[in-house]
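Please decode residue identities from the backbone states below.
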């Protein structure tokens, strides 16, 4: 019996040594296996997660605690990238529509205004995650208005004028 346990331990050490020496090959084989058996693994994982919700929550909390700095770094980086992209998108959209108020010609405090509020699907400034086609179709429904003209138009609509 002692001999069997020693042999198993020796075998595990040899496997670990081989995996470390052949890391890329081991990773590619593991990836190949995962791709081949993805559906089965996902199904098994879903069943286990459903049967052990407390442990899933504990594991998630442990992981988040252990990786809190990386999570903060990721969020900061990606939020910053999203803001930069949104600024570029809004700047392009404004220039596409003429970059001036269509009512008075002002070029400050410019806002997007949907001519027909019933056809509005989303706010242009929230269109970052939409497809290019969706974004352009929504942009074509808009005109540019300065804050003052925009307020006047909505005030007239609200009061039935």
């Amino acid at each position: 019996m002692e001999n069997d346990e020693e042999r198993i331990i020796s075998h595990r050490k040899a496997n670990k040594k081989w995996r470390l020496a052949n890391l890329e090959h081991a990773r590619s084989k593991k990836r190949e296996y995962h791709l081949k058996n993805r559906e089965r693994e996902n199904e098994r994982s879903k069943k286990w997660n459903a049967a052990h919700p407390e442990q899933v929550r504990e594991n998630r909390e442990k992981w988040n605690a252990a990786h809190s700095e990386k999570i903060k770094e990721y969020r900061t980086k990606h939020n910053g990238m999203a803001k930069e992209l949104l600024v570029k998108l809004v700047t392009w959209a404004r220039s596409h529509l003429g970059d001036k108020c269509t009512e008075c010609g002002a070029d400050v405090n410019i806002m997007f205004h949907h001519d027909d509020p019933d056809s509005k699907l989303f706010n242009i400034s929230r269109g970052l995650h939409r497809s290019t086609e969706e974004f352009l179709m929504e942009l074509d429904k808009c005109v540019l208005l300065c804050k003052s003209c925009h307020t006047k138009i909505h005030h007239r609509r609200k009061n039935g004028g």
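Observation: Residues 2-56 form one domain.
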